[in-house]
Amino acid sequence: MACMLRNTGNRGAQTDAAPGAPETGAFDLHAVVVRHGREPSRLLAMLHEITQVFGYVPPSVVTELSALLGLARAQIEGVVGFYAFFSTEPRGRFRVLFSDNITDEMAGSVELRSRMLEAFRLDLGEVSRDGLVSIGTTSCTGLCDQGPALLVNDRAIPRLTPARIGAITSLIRGNVPLERWPSNLFTIQSHIERRDLLLSTPLDPGSAIAAAIALGAAATIDAISDSGLRGRGGAGFATGTKWAACRAASGAERSVVCNADEGEPGTFKDRELLTHYADSVIEGMTVAGFAVGATRGFIYLRAEYPFLVAPLRAKLDERRQACLLGPGIQGCLDFDIELVVGAGAYVCGEESALLESLEGKRGIPRNRPPYPVTHGFKQQPTLVNNVETLMAAAFVAKFGAGFLRQVGSTTSAGTKVLSVSGDVARPGIYEYPFGVSIERVLEDAGATDAAAVQVGGPSGVLVSASEFRRRVAFEDVPCAGALMVFDASRDLVRVVENFARFFAHESCGFCTPCRVGTTLNAQAMQRIACGKGSRRDLKDLEKVSQLMRSASHCGLGATAGNPVLDALAKFRPAFEQRLRSLDVLPTFDLDEALAPAREVTARDDAGAHFNQEFEGNEA
Ligand SMILES: Cc1cc2nc3c(=O)[nH]c(=O)nc-3n(C[C@H](O)[C@H](O)[C@H](O)COP(=O)(O)O)c2cc1C
Ligand code: SF4
Question: How far apart are CA 619 and CA 616, in angstroms?
Fold first, then answer.
């Protein structure tokens, strides 16, 4: 999960602190811990603060933190090691991470990255000897409509060009603190290209809460059920059913969680909803809190969206001032919301992993059942919904069960907000009634030569040109939000290789099928992409992907093979053209792989060698 950075290990005698950072002794960790109420569940927030100061989490700070929180040292190290945004190793004072998403690659990120690496005479993942800068990669930063993008000290810079890279390089060389960098470097643009039911209907703050209170909790849930609202986060579960189960569960304190992790490459619609429609999303959370009987809410925001933290906190405060949040909302409801920032782990979008992360732990998905509605945050009933689902729920509470049914189909009521990127003239957010054809979206976005579209991100469906009449709907092509468009000039083998690398990087490693399977797939795809693959690789890719689908512990592993299986089914010639030979070739030198074992056991006789011919004759 950790992002690609490695230390050159050549920084001589040094303190724990990164250059320019305070000595650990001068840092008041105690004050940080007290500010967070000595709560182990606030561990991620504390680690963010520590990282802001030192650039990493120094070992001496881990020791002190473990004493102050009463947590085992290994537990804290385990958390630090799990998340890409944390590290126990010193990194550069300027930590540059280029987005590794395929759309960034298509927009030229690899060349720009090389340019910066060359300027600092660094290899990818290396920290400069003076500790000034480290350059690595990270998974999709959610800026696919304005890529290529990078993060510097966790702040996003979009729309990279050679000129921008030159400017960033000079600022780093000059050791200019980030606060003094030109603000336009950090400007995130909005591209809302099409508004429909949700994005064009005004909703006065507080009006949906008032309507829900007037209706009563049980009737509000009935309205949500009757509206046909289904989860917009991927699985499409009936929202009313989920809300009813949470309300019915027994527990001392209920919670509502807004899942704003949005880690699926190619997806950025929640970023825009939280930028321009935060009031409606928070309104939906408050309605949900009233309906299920929750007193606390959390917005779990992906760490790659730091530019949303201050505006969202301000919005929460504004609503508290207006008595729309906090104690005594509309005279009868106590409900408040905390903003929690993730730390760079795609798997934390999975609801049970998200809850682990909210509790300050590693984001390992839980065994299910029990489900979050009965055993969620701190084992209490918890409702987890996507940003868009909660926003739609606010409209249903205000305008009634029929609101969504104005458009869409019987099984897919309402609209879907799509993030469109890749080979299109107008990348951005498009809201359509469910049932819109892919063809129509491509036309509106200005895709003139589309050959394939990845719908729903890498874990979704790869659609070929012959299928562009298919519709975005739960009954045809379900989609959490992303459409990545590839024109005829794109190399789909490279695209799938990028997706396979993403899954290998993001697998949490808990279960073997996914941990091993994603790595094997990434290796096979890399071989094929470099023209060193064989037909045996294709067979293995299919076998491994099927195995991951059936045997993985969570949805990440279950869907990790989707792009491989889809691409092999629909674009097989593109793969076969890249094979070194269509005949079986040994693709993995097992004898060479056994060399370390021979060294350890001091054996080098014939029996300690693997007969390579055997592998070649197989299959
Ligand atoms: C690996 C993985 C990542 C996920 N990421 C997200 C995410 O970023 N946002 C989201 O809303 N749901 C995500 N989900 C789905 C959630 O587990 C959950 O189904 C969803 O938040 C429920 O909300 P909904 O019913 O409103 O869709 C993810 C699932 C998996 C398996
Ligand atoms: S499938 Fe297994 S290894 Fe993969 S992310 Fe889920 S729990 Fe982790």
Answer: 8
